[in-house]
TrEMBL record:
CDD domains: PBP1_SBP-like. It comes from Melaminivora alkalimesophila. It comes from the Bacteria. InterPro entries: BCAA_transport, Leu-bd, Peripla_BP_I. Keywords: Signal. This is Amino acid/amide ABC transporter substrate-binding protein (HAAT family).
Length: 435
């Protein structure tokens, strides 16, 4: 199969936004702007853009596209004349269809199409497969080496035992997120019984494992009354799981579920009359607040790198600018870390003075960026980004601390805990092998 036909199988275009992005990133437009003289730098997003998690993939694309637009609007990336001078970023998208083999095919197509920066995140299993493939590719084909920037795959193993010089994670890993949730759980002295449920793959297993370990250390008085792993993206009716949760007498559920697997779970819990608290990694988006409605008020806790109701003027301006760019309520899914990822990439390209993957990776190890009051730095020892984490509780729009709701649902998240980067940081077991 030719590179062109592979691209036809893996790229899914996206209407107005994608057309706008291709126009602002095109060589012809760049040449018409005195601030951008060289060919665009191709950045390839490999993600599920169809199937059970298409909504999550499209939501990520909006974030990355907006961040790329911001770089291009200020003129692009300043490189030496030998590297084409000032160049814009061009965001390409490849549909992995939620399958690892499709992700590998998309990776090959992206490399053939000239991309040397690969983005992915929605699945730690896919991230692990891509890391292995990129390691091998970069060793066998040094003239076409690529760098992998990960915005959401949070299995701790990816920056520990499976750490790679070519992989950089911009999200807090599962153990860091669990520790942040545990700070809030520790204060709930009425809590005595919890139920653990997650998706049956590396990330979901890591979340449950860390929940057990941290509860044993920090809340030994809390009993785990149920523990379950379910197939990823294949359950359409979570009612049987919700019934078991309710019957267990659990006062709280701890879950790393994301996308439709979270939305359908919380909806089923509401429908069977479960009244406990949900401690979640991703309960603040993609339909979960609307699915719970009033039943979730004060009972859904979410951890994130940033939340829209963070009480600072810079954060408020940042969020309002996103809403202006994407005014439809259903498009309200914004993550600061994805913005910082693109800022770090632009910084690294300029610091390296080159698009060569080795030079860019070395520059990324030194990345330190800030946006709208949120700061982050890349830890060179394992390529785990270090940034503050926040924990929020779901409340009605307009209640104290909730100026902004989620996806037009009428519910938002009040920030109850801010955890500085130095406290969120955790040790690593990575033994980095550098070229």
């Amino acid at each position: 199969m030719s590179p062109l036909s592979r691209r036809g199988a893996t790229v899914r275009f996206c209407g107005l936004l994608c057309s706008t992005l291709w126009f602002t990133s095109s060589p012809a437009h760049a040449q018409g702007n005195p601030g951008a003289s060289g060919m665009p730098i191709k950045v390839a997003m490999v993600e599920s853009l169809s199937g059970s998690f298409a909504n999550a993939g499209e939501a990520v694309f909006r974030n990355i596209a907006w961040a790329v637009e911001r770089v291009n609007e200020r003129g692009g990336v300043a490189l030496p004349a030998s590297e084409g001078g000032t160049r814009r970023l061009q965001l390409l998208r490849y549909d992995s269809k939620g399958q690892n083999e499709e992700a590998l095919s998309a990776l090959r197509a992206a490399i053939d199409d000239g991309a040397r920066i690969i983005l992915q995140g929605n699945s730690s299993a896919t991230a692990a497969v891509l890391i292995e493939a990129i390691n091998k590719h970069n060793q066998r084909d040094p003239g076409r080496r690529v760098v992998f920037l990960n915005y959401s795959a949070v299995d701790p193993i990816l920056t520990n035992e499976k750490c790679s010089f070519w992989h950089f994670r911009f999200d807090a890993h599962a153990d860091m997120r669990m520790a942040a949730l545990m700070e809030v759980m520790r204060e709930n002295r009425a809590l005595s019984r919890v139920y653990l449920i997650g998706q049956d793959y590396s990330f979901g297993q890591a979340v449950l494992r860390e929940a057990r370990e941290q509860l044993a250390r920090q809340r030994p008085d809390v009993a785990i009354v149920g523990e379950e792993l379910h197939p990823v993206g294949r359950i359409k009716d979570f009612a049987p799981y919700a019934v078991k949760i309710k019957a267990s007498g659990a006062q709280a559920v701890v879950t790393g579920n994301w996308g439709n697997d979270l939305t359908l779970l919380v909806k089923a819990a509401r429908e069977v009359g479960y009244e406990g608290t949900f401690y979640t990694f991703y309960g603040n988006a993609l339909g979960a607040p609307a699915a719970l409605g009033d039943a979730g008020v004060g009972k859904v806790v979410a951890v994130a790198d940033w939340l829209p109701n963070l009480p600072t003027a810079a954060s408020e301006r940042f969020y309002q600018s996103f809403r202006e760019r994407f005014p439809r309520p259903q498009d309200d899914y914004v993550h600061m870390r994805m913005q910082l990822l693109i800022e770090a990439l632009a910084q690294a390209l300029e610091r390296a003075g080159s698009t060569d993957a080795l030079a860019v990776a070395r520059a990324l190890e030194q990345a330190e960026v800030s946006l709208a009051g949120q700061r982050g730095r890349m830890r060179a020892s394992d390529h785990q980004f270090q940034q503050q984490l926040v924990v929020g509780v779901m409340e009605r729009l307009g209640s104290p601390g909730v100026r902004f709701d989620v996806e037009g649902s009428g519910y938002g998240f009040r920030v109850v805990r801010q955890i500085p980067a130095e406290r969120a940081e955790m040790p690593t077991t990575c033994q980095m092998q550098r070229p």
